[in-house]
Amino acid sequence: MSTTAPATTRTGLEISGVSLVHGDGESTVTALDDVSLTVSPGEFVAIVGPSGSGKSSLLAVAGGLAKPDSGTIRVGGHDLGGMSGRRLTELRRTQIGFVFQSGNLIPALTAVDQLRLPMTLGRVENPRDPMELLEEVGMAHRARHRPDKLSGGERQRVGIARALVTRPALLLVDEPTAALDRSRSHDVVSLLARETHGHDVATVMVTHDQDVLEHCDKVYRMTDGTLEVESN
Amino acid sequence: MFLAWRELSFARGRFVLMGSVVALIGLLMVLLSGLSVGLVNDGVSGLQKLPVSSFAFQDGVDKTSAFSRSVVGVETAETWAEQDGVEDATPFGNSLVNTRTDKDVDIDMALFGVEEGSWLSPEATDGADLSGPGQIVVAGTLKDEGVAVGDTVEIDQIGTKFEVVGFLDGQHTYGHVDVGYVDLRTWQEIRAGVRPGEPVPDHVYDDATAVAVKYDADADVDLAAGDKAAETTSMTLKESYGASPGYTAETSTLQMIQVFLYAISALVVGAFFTVVTIQRRHEIAVLRAMGASTRYLLRDSLTQSAILLIGSSAVGVAIGLILGALISSSPMPFALEAAPVAVATVLLVVLGMVGAAAAVFRITRVDPLTALGGNR
Ligand SMILES: Nc1ncnc2c1ncn2[C@@H]1O[C@H](COP(=O)(O)OP(=O)(O)OP(=O)(O)O)[C@@H](O)[C@H]1O
Ligand SMILES: [Mg+2]
């Protein structure tokens, strides 16, 4: 099923020595403290940890939404440091896919239009076919429905499909199962695992949900801005 | 325009509501502009149609009521005619009178006294030109009031009678009443209050209201030098509108209403697009995270606002033009001109787009991360 180039020619996410301090002046919060993390193409990594430990901050930095105070970040071989805003936008559009907990679908668009949207933002090299991809995530029968007519789990599937339609090198997923019951959570996370492995995407998923970790290749724990391996 | 169209149709309830407001503002702008042009015409169309370049009034006269207060000697016209660049100058009389025709039609009239056969003497498009005492040429619009060639017009109190010999083309008004042209000598007698048959003192024929001066539009005429030589105060034809009764008060009131309407529509339209865009804050943050450029977001928002604004103001202006055509055929002072309507429409569209663009800029400056609130 995979149509991507062999994994050896692609690199996923390489983060080394990244620190991020929120706020300025007296009230500063160290969200990330010398974090290093490498995720290869086709690898599914989970990050767990208490609230406020810096998990979302890590995703923001990895996705070029926040600039780290130190350290280097490479996505698909491209160094984010010193990139202009325009190039960063371009990189997000072509190399990075985001899946947020909720509200990440555009209310006005049907499921299939959500997947067509990334291609209207600019040129996309060899995108996946929106209908086929919807089929793959089991949402083809809801292609003409808008988000308000979809269940939480269905929305999350469409969101995942939309993040994957541009064949990104890196997929960043923030608590995809927070609003779902146990069996839906397993469906969504196993879908993520399948796509990660099948299309050589480097996937980082933040979760509070211990149940779904079985689908992941590697689990890290974030505590007060520092990251360490929990299990392989 | 993938997203813009879909969002317009998705939130059509809200956009239709706003579209109606914009259409109503457009309608109001058209009606107001028609009313203000109509009022100007009703006030000074008789002056606008004069072949006059400037008027020389009595020295130091109050400029807001010059036509009713000024008295100049008729010989002043000769001094003015000799000025460099001036083609010709002739005395002009202007007074407001109440009249009644032999068919019992009451007419308030602005009586313009001119030397018959002079360049100031009007051409009748219906009937004959002024050719002597006892004749009057009146505004064409009086035909609608039942006045016809051959009717007799009598001045109240004094009793001077004129025969209507001709009609001018269309509307000729001054101070919201119709204009009638009579020969200068008779006008001078009426102004002096001399009844028909009474002896006329010689000095009655010495004075007129002003001297009408004619010169080429691009002739370099030194009005100040002329005023000095003739001991007069000059106003160009346009400036003299302000000397017509009520003109300044009416036009400044209407202008103020129009300025307020523009300001209100700018606020309403600007505020609407600001609110709509701020409501899209989360969505715009998602689009930014997906790699939408600021240019894309601006284009998307501006397309939406342009479609809404152009569509609904076109509807409003169209309704305004239809209503205006209906009003124009009524006695209400109303006249539509293309330029003010076009300016009002363009202004409405541009103000709305500025509001939308400002809102988008404010949101794209927000960090997409904070807008997403990490996880919501
Ligand atoms: N924009 C910001 N400005 C200031 N401080 C921030 C900002 N964003 C996050 N923080 C702080 O940085 C720390 C890490 O936040 P982050 O959102 O990364 O935590 P998290 O691990 O994702 O938590 P949760 O599990 O609750 O989502 C927290 O202490 C938070 O208060
Ligand atoms: Mg978080």
UniProtKB/TrEMBL annotation, chain A:
GO molecular function: ATP binding
Superkingdom, taxonomy of origin: Bacteria
Transmembrane feature ranges: none
UniProt keywords, alphabetically: ATP-binding, Nucleotide-binding, Transport
Domain spans labelled ABC transporter: 13-232
PANTHER family, alphabetized: ABC TRANSPORTER RELATED, IMPORT ATP-BINDING PROTEIN
Protein name: ABC transporter ATP-binding protein
TrEMBL record, chain B:
Annotated ranges, domain ABC3 transporter permease C-terminal: 259-368
Parts of the chain that traverse the membrane: 15-40, 259-278, 306-327, 339-361
Main location: membrane
Membrane topology, from the record: Multi-pass membrane protein
Pfam family, one: FtsX
Subcellular location: Cell membrane
Domain of life: Bacteria
Keyword hit for Transmembrane helix: yes
Keywords: Cell membrane, Membrane, Transmembrane, Transmembrane helix, Transport
Full protein name: ABC transporter substrate-binding protein
